[in-house]
Amino acid sequence: MAKKGDWVRIHNIVLKAEQRTGKLPEDTKNSDLQMWTKGFLQEESAEVGDEVTVETACGRIEKGTLYEENPHYTHSYGEFVPEIIEIDRTLREILRGGDK
Amino acid sequence: MAQLAKDYDSVMGRSNEIMKEALGLDYAPFESGSVAFDYEALMKATNYTIDEINRIQSRTGVGSTPLLELRNITAFARKYAKPGYGARIFVKDEAANASGSFKDRRAACAVAHAKKLGYKGVVAATSGNYGAAVASQAAMQGLECIIVQECYDSKGVGQPEIVEKARKCEALGAEVIQLTVGPELFYTTLSVIEDTGYFNASLYSPYGIAGIETLGYEIAMQCREKIGKDPDMVVCTNAGGGMVTGTARGLIKAGCKDTKVVAASIDLTGLSMASDVDFNRKSCTTGHTGFGVPYATDPDHSDVPRSAARPLRYMDEYVTTTQGEVMYMTEMLANLEGLERGPAGNTALACAFSLAQELPEDAVLVVSETEYTGAGKHIQPQLAFAKENGIDVRFGNPQEEDKPGTNLILPKDPSFIKHKVADLKHFKQSRIKKAVKKAGCEPNEADLVYLAEEVKEDVAFVKETLGL
């Protein structure tokens, strides 16, 4: 449960699929246009899924569905990619004098 | 004041007035009423000389980046060139700018101008390095900042590189609004601009483009100081056209008469830029033909009435490469030169590696940028993400096997890194026809001169294109 003043992430449907504009590929046209932003929770308390209000980093008031409490990033340097090691080996071999 | 309706049609219907308020610039006086508009007058309207821009940028940690000679990569390129060939390759290390890319040059001017005009904040619609640049400049210059990004597919899966840029914008104090795929991002941006009254720090404003001129100018000056001559060729990664336009204008201002300006993009033919499914099937988020070609042939479909980025006015050649070659060159830059930099900025470098092989050894080739690297924005997470999305990552011959969205072909060895020459004449003809069609009138004599300037050709070329 998030409390007033907690930093949270909210979600909104900006346009439902049927409201989307003409010149779009079918896959995009069949999807809702969704939006996420973050801010300080304004309600006393809320659960994920509740309709809430937040004050964003620049002081804007935005409404939406509570999506994530204490939002954090999980992007990384990714899993091991053996091809990269192979590139390094090829380059070093050429550098050491082999033609390929 | 009555509450304005905020639905899609209402906001889009107010687009012109919202934009005029948010740009602090009326574009109407530059229009001729037919096809032409006065591009140079638009650029002069910024009222900033290159010295003033330099002053603005140097106050905020932007510009005067090192020009580095890539000696080991040059030696490698010469292994694959005929005797006496293989130009000296240099790179402008733009990752040394405050937020890690050449976009700081654009943002420094746009934000300084917003501040001068009294705006309380800036908004930019961008999924690229420009977001971090605007956020960084806004932080330094004391303005609020909102970045609007296209970041996720409809399942909520984010492109790692764009997610990293969101993180960076937030770290620099900005609010980030993230959207799923689709051009209606413009509606959200307009709506936020209208609600906040902030400045539209468009990538395509004359302030932004004027900010890049210092890059071309510095390249010329550093070449003269270090090597004692002007660069023979400058290779610029091309997406929205700003890099090519600004760099070339700076080179011209520095008096470089014989420097060839080459635009370089990753060929993503076959992938739709507005497709939800294709969104996460590409391994580069910019520097590709999905932006490069439409923005070159129709620059005025951006978020300003007339884009100041008009690359066909300046490019002498347009070449393409592939995602696999750019990944490979990024690794080569790290391994052979000790420079770990972000992949998308190395598009021009991949082309430069083979372009250099066509130039004599005493020629000087400058790659106009590098960009910062980090989690998500690196070849390892991009290749891992490609594999997760079912892309066939393997070694091979990119020239023959590359199929964007299906595979990612890493060159078997550096001899398989080869640029392709794009049909620039076709793009020029397309630009001319689109401009005339958009104006919806017969071009007059002044229009023909304008169209010739638009594509760096003569009036006869324009007439031939239009069958006149």
Topology:
The complex is a heterodimer of chains A (100) and B (468).
Chain A: E1 2-3, E2 7-15, H1 26-29, E3 33-41, E4 45-46, E5 51-55, E6 61-69, H2 82-95
Antiparallel strand pairs in A: 1-4, 2-3, 2-6, 3-5, 5-6
Chain B: H1 8-13, H2 15-23, H3 39-44, H4 50-59, E1 67-69, H5 71-79, E2 88-92, H6 103-116, E3 121-125, H7 129-141, E4 144-152, H8 160-171, E5 175-180, H9 185-196, E6 199-200, H10 206-226, E7 233-237, H11 242-253, E8 260-266, H12 289-297, E9 317-321, H13 323-337, H14 347-355, E10 364-367, H15 379-388, E11 392-396, H16 398-401, E12 407-411, E13 420-421, H17 424-439, H18 445-454, H19 459-466
Parallel strand pairs in B: 2-10, 3-4, 3-6, 4-5, 7-8, 7-10, 8-9, 11-12
Antiparallel strand pairs in B: 1-2, 9-13
Helix pairs in contact in B: 4-10, 6-7, 6-10, 7-8, 10-11, 13-14, 18-19
Q: Which terms would index this structure?
A:
heterodimer, A: 100 residues, alpha+beta, 4-stranded antiparallel beta barrel, two-stranded antiparallel ribbon, 2 helices, 6 strands, 18% helix, 36% strand, elongated, B: 468 residues, alpha/beta, Rossmann fold, 7-stranded mixed β-sheet, 4-stranded parallel β-sheet, 19 helices, 13 strands, globular
Q: What does this protein structure show overall?
A:
The complex is a heterodimer of chains A (100) and B (468). Chain A is α+β, with helices and mostly antiparallel strands. Helices cover 18% and strands 36% of the residues of chain A. The longest helix of chain A is centred in the C-terminal third of the chain and has 14 residues, at 82-95. Chain A is elongated and about 70 Å long. The termini of chain A are far apart. Chain B contains 19 helices and 13 strands. The N and C termini of chain B lie far apart (54 Å). The model of chain B has no long low-confidence stretch (mean pLDDT 96). Chains A and B meet through strand 3 and helix 2 of A and helix 5, strand 4, helix 8, strand 5 and helix 9 of B.
